Amino acid sequence: MKKKIAVLSATLILMAGAVSASGLNGDYKGNPIVKVTSNGKPLETGEVPAMIYDGNTLVPISLLRQLEASVTWDGDAYQVDVKLPEPPATADKSEVTKQQSDVKKLKQYAAAAELYLKLQTLGESLDSARTTIRLTADTMNAGKAEASSLITNAKTSYYKANETLTNLTKETTDSVYDDFIKHGIDSSQIRSILTDYQESARHYQLALDYLDKYIRDKKASDYNEYLNNNGKADNSAKSAREKSSKGYAEWSKNVHNY
């Protein structure tokens, strides 16, 4: 902008110094034509171009309009009024800082909603594993031979859910929790959910182990241990799943309303 103003301030007559490049851009009535540019871009001239006249550089006032200047000709007074363009307003630093802060906060809100959704989905996976484990036990009690193959399906279902839990635990690092806290997100709730799921997974593993032994040895004590651990696993998973659902509803709403 300073360069533009400098050009405008010297619009009508610019001293050319010792100019001897006559004919470089052609002549106008015997006067060497001067090519005028703004930031390297040539300006369009009308019938009368800029030229060297009597050792001075003359620039038509029509070129000023191309530089966003307001030019008014007073024919009675033989006077030209030139108004230079106002420099662009400087952005309010405090407003820019606030906008940047808002963007960061919104990203954290979205990250929290996404994490709660993953935790909710994990709960559904554990619930699916629970159903398969229970079906295996029911089949065994009914004296059906397919119980041995169903226990394999139950283990596969559980291992898949447990792998998801392990990955989520690794992804949710201390820095993730710190960022949540900085933006007003209760990270203790997320920690509590993961702890509940970990406790649930531990008891599901024990339930599977005892159920596997029960299928093999037919001992009532193993079946009782299966029931005990399966019940504890269900309770922990249910608690975590409900918290996850509420968390997802809350933070997805916060993102929508931000």
Features:
two-stranded antiparallel ribbon; disordered N terminus; Cu_amine_oxidase-like_N; 7 helices; Four Helix Bundle (Hemerythrin (Met), subunit A); 2 domains; alpha+beta
Describe this structure in words.
It is a single chain. The chain has 258 residues and is of the alpha+beta class. It folds into two domains: 2-83, no CATH class; 93-257, Four Helix Bundle (Hemerythrin (Met), subunit A). The protein is 64% helix and 12% strand. The chain has a five-stranded antiparallel sheet, with no helix packed on it. Strand 6 (50-53) and strand 7 (56-58) form a beta hairpin. Helix 3 (93-141) packs antiparallel against helix 4 and helix 6 runs antiparallel to helix 7. The radius of gyration is 39 Å and the shape is rod-shaped. Residues 1-21 form the signal peptide. Residues 229-238 have a biased composition (Polar residues). Residues 38-84 form the Copper amine oxidase-like N-terminal domain. It comes from Paenibacillus tianmuensis.
- Return the average pLDDT rounded to an integer: 84
CATH architecture of the largest domain: Up-down Bundle
What form results from the Cα inertia axes?
rod-shaped
Compute the gyration radius: what is it? 39 Å
First-residue to last-residue Cα separation? 37 Å
Enumerate the spans where pLDDT stays under 50 for 5 or more consecutive residues.
1-22
